[in-house]
């Protein structure tokens, strides 16, 4: 005859959480099928079928399991020779404790397979954790957050747990420890590669959160690194109790570097009033991923403006390029450069006054961080053969100059008779 068993998964839950109750009927050792499979499971007081039961059944027949009720029934099921089947239902419980669940007997045409038993524990305490700002690149910083909860109506003291960071990733190290009073007065978390909480306390129905900064080793390969704590231990109402470990994966990835950012004028020397093409180059040729969110503003130096027409264009994907003729601003936002690619932004500029124009852009912001500024120099000269206006002196001005010189000479002769005009 088939064997009959049951399991809760997980076997330990926090109050109000869901556990999947699975009944397994194993006929793999039998050469004949078992027909008319029937059983009823009356859940223990305090445990109910979840509001959404999520019933599954591979045993044929009819399963009855209504949300909020306490009875699960299979009628007229069957399992083939050398085969097995399962019935599964979500259940829940709100009050901390250990609930032993013994089903009724499984009967079939093959005989009575007896009952099935398993325990569901609703924990008094709980610990959860998460790397709240990963994925992180090798050599970067990441925050590990622990949350401790007390589900009882009594205070809990002597809370303690450990977390072996080195077992997760060699060289993964906490920064800035020890920290005091992190979960109740007198509590402390300490360590570098082995984190240890001691002396924690929580009031009835209380919780605390502990954030610890970790540095990922510079040589860490990309990947997912499972991190598991010890059990959380504590004393509730004078009775030692514990909660199962908490776990999360640390995701280490290769974050793309910002693309290169340069600018140039072509030609670099022009006559006054003649346009030069200003080119911004965004170089992602070394990047293994596309870079998005390309944005920068270039405020041109005084006297240098966007030409008319601007003849502006870009080979970057998407984005908005703003180049108003006569203005002194070039702006680009929201663009993308392909992995391994390079794109350019072009705009004509001009100046009417001969000078050397040193042009420095704002930073290029990207999804991979700042690419910094770009700079270039444009020299504007007077065209060959051009006539510059030279100030002239009027006739009256010349006469006055001659008279002043004569008076000066006479005055010098009077005080020095040997002076000759």
UniProtKB/TrEMBL annotation:
Keywords of the record: Membrane, Transmembrane, Transmembrane helix
Stated name of the protein: DUF7933 domain-containing protein
InterPro entries linked to this entry: DUF7933
This protein's record includes keyword Membrane: yes
Domain DUF7933: 2-122, 127-252, 259-380
Residue intervals passing through the bilayer: 394-411
Coiled-coil intervals, chain numbering: none
């Amino acid at each position: 005859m088939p064997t009959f068993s049951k399991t809760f998964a997980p076997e330990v839950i926090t109050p109000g959480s869901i556990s999947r109750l699975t009944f397994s009927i194993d006929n793999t050792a039998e050469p004949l099928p078992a027909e008319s499979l029937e059983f009823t499971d009356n859940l223990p007081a305090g445990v109910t079928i979840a509001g959404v039961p999520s019933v599954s059944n591979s045993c044929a027949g009819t399963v009855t399991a209504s949300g909020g009720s306490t009875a699960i029934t299979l009628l007229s099921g069957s399992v083939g020779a050398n085969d097995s089947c399962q019935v599964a239902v979500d259940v829940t419980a709100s009050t901390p404790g250990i609930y032993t669940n013994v089903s009724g007997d499984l009967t079939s045409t093959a005989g009575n397979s007896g009952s099935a038993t398993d325990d569901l524990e609703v924990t008094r305490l709980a610990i959860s954790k998460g790397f709240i700002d990963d994925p992180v690149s090798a050599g970067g910083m990441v925050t590990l957050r622990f949350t401790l909860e007390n589900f009882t109506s009594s205070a809990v003291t002597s809370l303690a747990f450990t977390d072996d960071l080195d077992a997760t990733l060699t060289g993964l190290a906490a920064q800035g420890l020890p920290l005091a009073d992190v979960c109740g007065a007198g509590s402390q978390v300490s360590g570098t590669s082995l984190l240890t909480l001691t002396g924690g306390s929580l009031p009835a129905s209380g919780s605390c959160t502990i954030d610890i900064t970790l540095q990922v080793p510079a040589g860490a390969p990309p990947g997912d690194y499972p991190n598991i704590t010890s059990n959380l231990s504590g004393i509730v109402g004078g009775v030692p109790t514990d909660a199962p470990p908490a776990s999360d994966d640390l995701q280490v990835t290769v974050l793309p570097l910002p693309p290169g950012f340069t600018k140039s004028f072509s030609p670099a020397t022009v006559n006054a009033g003649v346009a030069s093409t200003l080119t911004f180059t965004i170089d992602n040729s070394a990047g293994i991923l596309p870079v998005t969110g390309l944005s920068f503003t270039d405020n041109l130096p005084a006297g240098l403006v966007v030409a008319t027409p601007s003849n502006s264009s870009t080979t970057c994907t998407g984005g908005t390029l703003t180049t108003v003729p006569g203005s002194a601003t070039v702006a680009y936002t929201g663009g993308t450069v392909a992995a391994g690619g390079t794109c350019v932004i072009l705009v004509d500029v001009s100046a009417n006054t001969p000078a050397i124009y040193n042009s420095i852009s704002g930073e290029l912001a990207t999804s991979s961080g700042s690419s910094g500024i770009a700079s270039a120099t444009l020299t504007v000269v007077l065209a060959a053969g051009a006539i510059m206006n030279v100030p002239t002196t009027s006739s009256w001005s010349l006469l006055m100059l001659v008279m002043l010189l004569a008076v000066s000479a006479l005055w010098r002769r009077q005080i020095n008779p040997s002076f000759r005009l």
